[in-house]
Amino acid sequence: MHNPTPPVLRPDPKQTLFSIRGLTYRYADGTPALSGIDLDIAPGDRIALVGHNGSGKTTLVRQLCGLLSPSAGSVSYKGKPLAGAHLDAARLEIGLLFQDPDDQLFGHTLMDDAAFGPRNQGLARVSAEEAARVALEQVGLAGMAYKPPHNLSFGQKKRAALAGLLAMGPETLILDEPTTNLDPRQEEIFLNLLRDFPGTLVCISHDLIFLYELCDRAVVIDRGRIHHDYTLKALVSHRASLREHGLDFSFRLAPETADESGKTPVRVPAATPPGKTAPAPALVSLRDFRFRYPDGTPALAGVDLDIVSGERVALVGENGAGKTTLLSCLLGLRRGEGTFHFAGEPVTKQRHRTLWQRVGMVFQDCADQLFCPSVGEEIAFGLRRLGCTTDETRQRVRETLVRVRLSGFEDRVPLHLSGGERKRLALACVLAMSPDLLILDEPTAGLDPEGEELLLQIIGDLDTTLLLVSHDMFFVGELTRRTLVMHQGVIGCDVPTREFMRDEALGSLNGLAFTYRRDCSGAIRELQHEHEHSHPHRHRHEHPHRHGGMVHTHAHEHVHEHPHRFVHRHDDGDKAHDHAPLRYPEHPHPGHDSEPHDHEHP
Amino acid sequence: MADVVHIVLPAWQFAAILAGPLILLAAAAAGLRFLVRRRSVSGEDRDWSVPPLADSAGATLFHRWDVRCKITALLAYSFLVAALEHVTPTLAALAVSLLALVLARSSLVRALTRLLAVTGFLVMFLVVMPLSAPALPGDTVLVIDGVDWLGFNLRGLYKALAIACKGVAIALLMEPLLTTAPLPVTLHGLTRLGIPDMVGQMVLLSHRYLHVFRHEAERMAAGMRVRGFRKRTDIETLRAVANFLGMLFVRSFERTERVFDAMRARGYRGRFPAPEEPRMQAKDLLLTGAWLALGITLILWDRFFQQGSG
């Protein structure tokens, strides 16, 4: 059960910036997306909009800038309904950052794009370009002002999209998944920019650690309705609420304890003790492996790599380090120069064409590998190419769906699945083919915490050789024993994962520092800290009890001393501390009913 | 009236005559490709903090030319070149295009890349036309000894050469036309010349999103390849390709809607902000007149001072 009486924050109606009353929205096919939304947003509010994938968060923020019109109810901005000329004016004060930066970068160059908004605000060309230049400077892209957007990396595109909004000097910024697929360095740049933003902020994200640093109010959306309007601190400290809405990221807070105690993360299979057996032959072996794009850009500059069968390896590095190119080569999509052995055999031109039978990969954007009309056909696609019989295909499809917790989804349309389900389907497509080497490219991108936890369990249960490419240091720590750090086309460091996680200098050097995440996690852990204590406390309850010869029942209150589990902070560490005789809600006291006891009768 | 001249050659000589130019062309294409590769490898990343045409290379006659005059003059000149019929004037047009490339300080790599795109099409003309041109009185036809039905008409070859030269001349001229002003400025110039504003906007957005859709298609194709998909001539391939195209269409359509939303969210109300308003000067008009006069001179030369295989 989650807290039924959450603290509701409502701004003073006179100061409301956005006022939403009875908002209902249905898609063109009649599917309800939002219903009965009442929400007030005051100037300067910093709101985290959270909820399951598909709960209606993006639809709600599109209402806030008038991109969608309510089916019923109203949306007001500065006291007037968002329509007509007021809507046109409001759009120039509200900045909406889309999930995919390519949707937003429609300019010929970054300068054209960033100046687009200011020009629409009525600024002359020179003033608009000046505003654009300042904004590009803010996001660290002034040196690329005249570069076409398609020549940028994903992180740069994301920052350029934000520059397009900042150039307009918006009063309100609405951000839809701002940090998805960003490496920690880019994420930190984003965080610093947004932390300093003086206006109103509405941020959709599944990353509660990022939100914790940025927002102070949390609005939880569940199946198109607002379920809670909390302070963010109240939300993150209340695990029951988090779990109910698929937001419980508390599993991410555990590893520090494991690390401190020197334990190996539980999701990694036990390693063979060294020296007991002969070293296994490498499944993948690369020596001085190089790759250059047709336009001459060097992507891999002499990679040396060995992955032993059964190993779980993480490949990390900043955006543009060459990770994706290396994966393409391992998959047989690209041919590099140098020595490449797979399972002890040199990968010749002929063998290159059949690598797909032994290497499987789940793409960062799983939509890139889903194209069939049904889930069953999607999984069977690869199996048919492997030459499996119809019966075998059917059997493998069924088994794989069970493994990825998608039983009964055979006839569903992949396009209509939620983000988490699609990711698991993409994994199923690969697992069904029983690859010797499984490659996962940013498996957690865009998933809600519930989806992440489920994926973590599924991957943790696999016994195949794993190469994990991720910026998510928690997943790296949980799923792998060995970490390869890639930088400028070479593997600069090959260390045990635990050592990598401890070495801050190593992380910082490669743009993988996650200091603020660790600090936030610590703060949230404090908030969520729950343990058992025995101390006197007040207790109100009703049970039959005896006063001398009289037995009666009524609600009464008295002091008890017995152990309880509750959220409780120890700001002074292990020092002795007092517990005030607080009052706690009703809870059972076995045997207490029959005890004679006394209390005052008013 | 002169008869058709048939020159009978042994098969090996005929093959040598036919293969010689083809080998030369193939070698030229390979050379172009090599040059393109080498130039793009060696080049360092340029300074993107300044406008692309703001450096010294941008200060040429073509860069300073008013974009409306430039479009009018070069397009009209291109039509005049397309109307040429004889080889010699087309070679002169080709020389003019090369001179324009030099004057505009255009990128050799880009010009060669543009040329590569049309090479295959032009080679087809060079192969097919001599073999398919009907023999008219006065034509010279090379025939293989014993294979009378297959003739190599030299008039067809001249025709094909003229077409190839015109094609190359016009393709090369597109370089000074399109790269001496930013695309939005060129499209704005077209709008000012009467092309509907919407067309210009669509071209501008297409130019931006073609890259995005290409990347999307490449990623999806990679997703299919890693699960064993190879193109074959069977129903399975047909089904897979249909699914691929369908999904690509759905994704493109969805993106189009999102892009439009993103534009509206930043204040778009049906018009892109116009780039800097161009100012036409007397020298722009003078240059336009000179360029058109050059085109007309080529036409007059072609029509009145050329004879023979035209």
From the structure above, extract its key features.
heterodimer; A: 602 residues; Rossmann fold; 6-stranded mixed sheet; 23 strands; 27% strand; B: 310 residues; 3-stranded mixed sheet
Describe the protein.
Chain A has 602 residues and is of the alpha/beta class. Helices cover 31% and strands 27% of the residues of chain A. Chain A contains 20 helices and 23 strands. In chain A, helix 7 packs across helix 20 and helix 13 crosses helix 14 (390-403). The longest helix of chain B is centred in the first third of the chain and has 32 residues, at 11-42. Chain B contains ten helices and three strands, in the order E-H-H-H-H-H-E-E-H-H-H-H-H. In chain B, strand 2 (140-144) and strand 3 (147-153) form a beta hairpin. By secondary structure, chain B is mostly helical. The chains are: A alpha/beta (602), B mainly alpha (310). At the A-B interface, strand 6, helix 3, strand 16 and helix 13 of A face helix 1, helix 8 and helix 9 of B.
Question: In a few lines, what is going on in this structure?
Answer:
Chain A is of the alpha/beta class and 602 residues long. Chain A is built from 20 helices and 23 strands. Helices cover 31% and strands 27% of the residues of chain A.
Alpha-beta content class of chain B: mainly alpha
Indicate the overall shape of chain B. flat
Rg of chain B computed from alpha carbons, rounded to a whole number of angstroms: 25 Å
SS strand fraction of chain B = 5-15%
SS class of chain A: alpha/beta
| Subunit organisation of the chains | heterodimer
- List the total number of helices of chain A: 20
Uncertain runs of chain A: 1-7, 255-266, 271-276
Q: How many beta-strand elements of chain A? A: 23
The strands making up the biggest β-sheet of chain A line up spatially as: 6-7-8-3-9-10
Compressed to H and E, one letter per element, the order of chain B equals: EHHHHHEEHHHHH
Give the count of helical stretches of chain B: 10
Radius of gyration of chain A: 28 Å
From the coordinates shown, what is the CATH architecture of the largest domain in chain A? 3-Layer(aba) Sandwich
* Large-scale geometry of chain A: globular
- Show the largest interface: A-B, 71 and 57 residues
Count of individual domains of chain B: 2
- How many independent structural domains of chain A? 4
CATH topology of the largest domain in chain A: Rossmann fold
User: Could you tell me the number of beta strands of chain B?
Assistant: 3
